[in-house]
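yo

u said u wanted the structure for the complex thing, so here. seqs first:
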Amino acid sequence: MSAAPGTRHAPLAVAVLGAGRIGRKHAETLAHRVESCRVPWIVEPLEDVGRACAADFGAKWTSDPAEAIADPAVDAVLIATPTNTHADLIELAASYGKPILCEKPIDLTMERTLAAISAAEKAGVPLQIGFQRRYDPSYVRARKMIEDGAVGKVELVTATSRDPQPAPLAYLAVSGGIFRDCSIHDFDLVRYLTGHEVVEVFAYGAALVDPAIGEIGDADTVVASLRFDNGALGVVTSSRRAVYGYDVSTEVFGSGGKVVVGEAPETLVRRYGKDGVTHDNIYWFLQRFEASYVVEVEDFVACLREGRAPRVTGEDGRAALAIADAATQSFKEGRPIAVAKRPLPAGAGR
Amino acid sequence: MSAAPGTRHAPLAVAVLGAGRIGRKHAETLAHRVESCRVPWIVEPLEDVGRACAADFGAKWTSDPAEAIADPAVDAVLIATPTNTHADLIELAASYGKPILCEKPIDLTMERTLAAISAAEKAGVPLQIGFQRRYDPSYVRARKMIEDGAVGKVELVTATSRDPQPAPLAYLAVSGGIFRDCSIHDFDLVRYLTGHEVVEVFAYGAALVDPAIGEIGDADTVVASLRFDNGALGVVTSSRRAVYGYDVSTEVFGSGGKVVVGEAPETLVRRYGKDGVTHDNIYWFLQRFEASYVVEVEDFVACLREGRAPRVTGEDGRAALAIADAATQSFKEGRPIAVAKRPLPAGAGR
Amino acid sequence: MSAAPGTRHAPLAVAVLGAGRIGRKHAETLAHRVESCRVPWIVEPLEDVGRACAADFGAKWTSDPAEAIADPAVDAVLIATPTNTHADLIELAASYGKPILCEKPIDLTMERTLAAISAAEKAGVPLQIGFQRRYDPSYVRARKMIEDGAVGKVELVTATSRDPQPAPLAYLAVSGGIFRDCSIHDFDLVRYLTGHEVVEVFAYGAALVDPAIGEIGDADTVVASLRFDNGALGVVTSSRRAVYGYDVSTEVFGSGGKVVVGEAPETLVRRYGKDGVTHDNIYWFLQRFEASYVVEVEDFVACLREGRAPRVTGEDGRAALAIADAATQSFKEGRPIAVAKRPLPAGAGR
Amino acid sequence: MSAAPGTRHAPLAVAVLGAGRIGRKHAETLAHRVESCRVPWIVEPLEDVGRACAADFGAKWTSDPAEAIADPAVDAVLIATPTNTHADLIELAASYGKPILCEKPIDLTMERTLAAISAAEKAGVPLQIGFQRRYDPSYVRARKMIEDGAVGKVELVTATSRDPQPAPLAYLAVSGGIFRDCSIHDFDLVRYLTGHEVVEVFAYGAALVDPAIGEIGDADTVVASLRFDNGALGVVTSSRRAVYGYDVSTEVFGSGGKVVVGEAPETLVRRYGKDGVTHDNIYWFLQRFEASYVVEVEDFVACLREGRAPRVTGEDGRAALAIADAATQSFKEGRPIAVAKRPLPAGAGR
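structre next:
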């Protein structure tokens, strides 16, 4: 929303890389929702998609990321391209000293993830990772309550995510698997909500929704048990298909009680009839988290303006991936796996 | 949200009259949220407020409504000025043949309300009234369910509105009283949800929140019983102060069940502690109905483009006011009062 | 539940008058649930019903109320006969000095109600009226909260009762009408919860469920607006038919917030499917208030043992009837009606 | 509740072994709630406790189980003694051919559990195990829905149990550990609700509530991941201390949706104030499951009368213990453990 008169800023120019669904959404947010912001470039390999998107938001189009990133008029970049390009683009943006907001995950491999983080750190550019749930008003409120002591000492954390239906098999085949693609949001949330690190994981997985998912070595239904560095326990469950809609809920339990972020009804309507009392369930993650994507981008811009570090760092991206890596290995090997710590002496930390 | 490429429209120019809280919000919606729309003029008596608002949305400023309305580049006008100016501005816009979206109510008197409606009708310009609740996803869903038979034949309707705190006394003194200022939203909702007209009202009122409200002849706590044209009964209750926040809920009950639009929690968070299970309540009407204001303006523009009649007409404004008038008279005279029908032979109808 | 060893009491002998559904239930409670209590007599005109009931609870049967009431072994009487016999039986029991628990209402006429109360007062026998909702854990908790200040000063009270289906027309014809038969529970509740008296009523009524109900001069759907002695307002709505079950809810709103006693789900089960999220609603008043009937009888016995006055007095019965009388008159005459105060100088009070 | 006249049965005499809290409750149910049932003996080592209990329910007292069990007037026995006596008493009752209702668990060791089941089978006497949750109306309803296809093919099961506070350490030391003492209810529930067997368990445990619990080799906070024989996954979490009360909830998710048995509010009251909207949580398992204990005993008697097998068998007791054994071993050894199948060729089965 626009600021009050008198708090003008120099317009901030953010190049948007990727004009798919989420790239368009971020471009619209930057162009229309964030005060005194503009989108100078849309970078997109598909010319007609890129040109249309650019026209909508008053941008130029290019298929060459370097052209946009190198442009001196560009203040920052937002990366919403396919995952396998994230690390390269982070390194490129870092080499030009441009601050970065990158969709999760940084990369499906830890090696490239570490390299990209390192590039941003060496260049001294802010790197924000797109775990949008951290900007959801319910999760922000829950974390505040927990910080303020509402659950006392954390003892037991439960997180569930279920999509309404599986993504296409072609996508799943390059997704890194359900732990890196889906559960990773919960691995990040449990770190965010508790302020503790996961040190060990044991994971069961099964292909119950679609045997083809099992044939590519992946699972569509998983249970990952967690041990935290303070001794607390946790469990993350995920499914690729919930016929009733998009089902995300999280509970943090401790010595002083519990805080729950519950499921989202679609509206405030309840119907009472002979068959009972019914309300609609939310069906799609964009219904649930639409506002979060906007706040995420607003916060990226605000951090740049105020010289603050982003709320979700490269290290947050790495730590969630490390849990997902351990869960994947545990699922395949049938034994608990220690979660890798950050290998470097360096110190992004939390 | 912007339309997909290829569905371009000629930009529609909507002058915004009034740069207060709600005028600004509408200007922002027109400038930033509605595809291919622009705000050529901000009309506002206070120069600095008007200029600042105009600058934010790429508009020119004037203190003279006629200057903006008469501008041939202006396609339509949005009236968000104080209530006592609405009827004059509707007549002015009608005289220039410009379609109108006017905040509720049209006027506090039935005479001027009828005159303004008549002016728009004679000029053949669309007149949409700003009962924003009709664009709320929950109320839209409820009406759809009721139309589809979810409650069978309507028998008993209950509607409640409570503000978190009274407006300033200076505002209340010119507000037309609680029935015309606050309950009027519920009088409109019960017509919208049931498709039936209210024919008689009996109202109790009391000044329990603030005796000063009683001293100006108004009430801050009211119960208005309703009889509908199909024999159904109803009740609207309102209060100027609910310490727990903004409390709006509505129930339509009938031979086949009931549909309830319930209260709005602020977030999806619940806290469990020694004192029980607690969630936050919503506090402010803009939290509850923010999306509705946007959809209302989007629909105004879409109706103009598609040549559809607005969803909320001048007659809807008159009918709700007629119920509020009857309630006010009943409150003062202590007896049931018949609701005035539209006096003209004419035929806006519903 | 039985008392702990060592708190023995002399067995209390309570004659039960009436062996219908509710009489049987009370007899079972007295015989099996209340410690050291027994049922010496079942009084019932139908011999086989009476004998069977007596056999189940170790009682003797008679068709003659006087035989049971006069028995020196009888300590108290419980009246669960048809309403038109209540006042006579109260007077009879009073004449023998026997404490009385009488189902509501005392009588459908104010004259006989006052006479019965007076008889009990003159005889100095406790007279408890069977408004069982006052013993429901939810209503007890709500009243405690309100007494403790949870809503501050009471300003607006809302109470709803809906039966799943109308009683047979033959019953309705002698029921005294919907206000005396159904809404009376809510008229009692609003007095109980607020501690205030209703001074005026305006009531709308309609026969929407069954025209035959209208033909006997009764309504099946009603809205009764209330004014309280402290200036607060209220509304009671009732319906003879809710297809989704038994629907009772009550809200007390005031300067400090509100307390709601809500609807009762049948179980704790929720089902999530393609059609949304559904739970069962309770269907029958005995599911909702079964425990209350037991506590009511336990409390009657406890009051006798401890020499306490009953929690629900003859005056409570009269006051609720007076509101029902005023509502009935208002419904018939179309104007607000003052609620009759207790005519006597005497002093049951609350 | 008593049966209707005309369905008389010969009185059934059930000896109650153990006059502690739960033994008293069962004796009361048999003596007062179940039609045509009586309690001929209370068996209790503490004479005063036993005599008092016997007096309350019209029974004789003995400290010698054999005296009661051998009495030809005794038709069946209910075992509510400490766990370490269950197997011996089952064998004793079986040797006299008396049907048995035994509180869970049969024994803390699999060896004695199998021996007791075998003794009952050889003697041909019904053996019902006291998993009272299977008689809770919510769980009964949930199972019915699942059997009727509400969740389609079961894929993911989640069950949580939390006590308000830990039992005394002296009790915990002989309880068999949290999996056999607390989680065992959920291990039984997941079998009951899904109709599938658990084949493997991985369990984490920690002593977070009280380090002394860790010092005796037990945990107070656990997460047990499950694999079922149909490939479905599950997770059971338990805690010895939830400050907000007794927290039991269960979710069965599958290809067609999910069924949830949720938490239990203490009453139907909600309070709205400046701090939000609050309701009371239930605090004690007897509030949550009181009705279940009564239905459990009623069903035991009904099964005997009708010659039906009990709803909860010795095999159910063994199977839940086998899961608890595997969970305990997994917790101690840090690896997944296969759940032992019934070793015998025999065939209680489910």
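The CA atoms of residues 205 and 222 of chain C lie 4 Å apart. The interface with chain D takes residues 1-2, 5-6, 28, 32-33, 52-53, 55-56, 137-138, 141-142, 145, 150, 256-264, 266-274, 280 of chain C (CB under 8 Å).
cya
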